[in-house]
Structures are given as C-alpha cells and as structure tokens.
Amino acid sequence: MKFELDKSIEVLEKTPLILEAFLSGLSENWIHNNEGKNTWSPYDVIGHLIFGEKTDWIVRIQLILSASENKMFEPFDRYAQLNEEQNLPISQLTKKFIELRSENIKVLKSLNISKEDLKLTGIHPELGTVTIAQLIATWTVHDLGHIAQISRVMSKQYKEEVGPWVKYLGTLNK
Amino acid sequence: MKFELDKSIEVLEKTPLILEAFLSGLSENWIHNNEGKNTWSPYDVIGHLIFGEKTDWIVRIQLILSASENKMFEPFDRYAQLNEEQNLPISQLTKKFIELRSENIKVLKSLNISKEDLKLTGIHPELGTVTIAQLIATWTVHDLGHIAQISRVMSKQYKEEVGPWVKYLGTLNK
User: What's the Cα-to-Cα distance from B11 to each of A25, A125, B108, B173, rounded to whole Å?
Assistant: First the structure.
C-alpha cells in the first residue's frame, strides 16, 4: 500500500476502540503480567501510548509545519511510562488514551495537510531527515505493533498451559 | 498464569468485540492485503476462525466429554477457508464469527466443566493425548495469536512508507 492520510486516520481512529474492547473488564493477571524481566505488560503499553500522544506524533507534525527554523525533534522517552504512577486502574488509563487520541485526531484533521505538505521534513535525533508522511505511517504502524504486542504478551501467560500445542502457536515462540 | 476456565472465557468472549472494533469500516486494502504469496489477509484469518468455531474447539470438548470410546479428534483443516466463497463482505464474515462464538460460549458454559473434567483427555491426531484444559488454553492463545497476526499483516502494508523508522518497528521485521 502506498501511504494515504485518510487510510492512516482510519487505523489511528480504531486503536482506542480496539484497546477498549481488548482490556476493559479483564482480570488483573491479563493486564499486569509481562513476558519476563524488563518487558512490558499490556498496562505498560497503554502508558507508553499515552506518552506518544502527549509528546511525540502530533508535536512533531506541528514542528515540521511550523515557521521554526529548528526542525530537530525532541527525543522521545520510550520508557517514560515506567516512571509514572502505576496505580491508576486500567480503565482510567485507557480512558486517558482515548481522550488524548481523539483530541489528536481532531488536531490532525484540522491541519488540512496537503499532498505537498506530506513531503515536508523534520530531523529525527537518530534517524535524520524524515517526512510528515513517514511520521504518520510510523504512528499507524506503531499502533498496530503495540496491539500485536498486547496480544502476544497475553498469549504467553498460557505458554505452560497449552501442553503439546505449544509448537503450533507462533506467538508463544517469539 | 495457571489455567482457569473463567479467565479463558474472559478472552474468548472478547475476541469478537476486538475483531469487530478492528475490521468494521476499514478500506478494502487493509482487509484483503496479506504478507506475500501463501500468507493470509485479515479476511482469511476471520474465515479460519469461523472454521475453528464450526469444526474444532467445542466439537473436540464435546467428544472428550461424550460416552464415545473413540476419543480421536478429526484433523482440523487449517486452510479450509481458502476454498470458501471469497466474496462475502468482511462485515458479514465478522458477523458470522460473532454469532458462532457467542453460541459456542453458551455451549461451553452449559457444559459445567468441573476441575476434574478439565483433566479428561482426547487424542490429537498428531500431538497425542491432550486434556480439556490444554484444549481451552489453546483456543484462547489461538485467538490472541490471530489478533496479533491481523495487526502484524496490516502494519506490513506500510513497510515501505515508514522510511528510516523501519528498524524500530518490530512487526515490520517478522
């Protein structure tokens, strides 16, 4: 698929619905267990997504579109959520993400990004020059990757419970 | 996590909601593109899940609990959906899955499977002896694996569109 803004927004708008369907009302073990030391639980993933909404995607798009001469992005702290208060119920954390995403989609649409604008560039501190199109494509893929991660992490909680089926189940062997 | 029937049902009940949230109203490309030759699109995955509801999980549980002396499972055709009519809109396919799953959860609950029943066994044609607990754990993990797959397959459609971010995005490198 070639990048299209509308098709990216389709996915970006779905992520909150998917996460809500996924995580609301689940037992604590499904929410808080991870894949082992220094890995993330579904709870941690939602925290990470919240930080992205606050400090990463839209902020960077706005910087690229701004009159500022300095187009260097602030580095994104991929572990910021681990320093946050960890006692918020998952329902509140998910609600927070839903609100932030909804607000950011509104901003994204209000920017009326044209096909020409999609080629405008910023500077990623590690990756160098990137376009708005690449940034929005990455936002989309990043969402999908973390949905896949939540699924995988949850599936692994039953790794010892599936008996001989373990070898047929791809997510248990990653 | 140790296997618990209730915690498995939590996930099994969520899968239809997650898939509905994921796939309803998406553009055809997101639904029908796959990862390359002999791989599945999200559309194919839903077809596969439908066959599981019809011929695999509950059928096998019922066989184990039945008075039948022959506890050998029928082999499950993991590619059956590829021989089916491929023109049903995804919304109808998803609806079909939701109905079948809802019906199967009702059956599962109505079986009143006890802790002792969970240890009862059937014979998998390739894997040998398996318990009801292992079967239900596998059903749960199988759902989560296919949700992860749908996410991964969709994310890959943008592999060429993310530019230098490709190396940060795990699902693009699987």
Answer: 10, 40, 13, 27
The answer to whether B31 and B23 have CB atoms below 8 angstroms apart is yes
Nearest to B68 by CA among B104, B122, B115, B116: B122
Cα-only R_g, chain A:
18
Reference A46, options A22, A25, A62; nearest CA is A22
For residue B148, give the nearest of A130, A148, A158 by CB distance: A148
Q: Are B146 and B49 in contact (CB under 8 A)?
A: yes
B41-100: pLDDT as tens digits: 999 999 999 999 999 999 999 999 999 999 999 988 877 777 776 789 999 999 999 999
The one-character DSSP state at B122 is E
Enter the tokens of residue A15.
Answer: 């992520």
Report how far residue B9's alpha carbon sits from residue B14's, in angstroms, rounded to the nearest whole number: 8
Q: Which residue of B has its CA nearest to A33?
A: B1
The beta-carbon neighbor of A164 closest among B128, B162, B163 is B128
Q: Is B137 left (phi over 0), alpha (psi -120 to 50) or beta?
A: alpha
Structure tokens at B156: 């890959």
Helix (H) or strand (E) holding B6: helix B5-23
ipTM metric: 0.96
What distance in Å separates the CA atoms of residue B45 and residue B69, rounded to the nearest whole number? 34
The per-residue pLDDT for A87 is 82
Stretch (H or E) spanning B48 = helix B42-55
Rounded CA-CA distance A106/A167 in Å is 45
- Measured CA to CA, the distance from residue A158 to residue A152 in angstroms comes to 11
Q: How far is CA A116 from CA A119, A132, A133, in A?
A: 6, 10, 10
Residues forming a β-bridge with B91: none
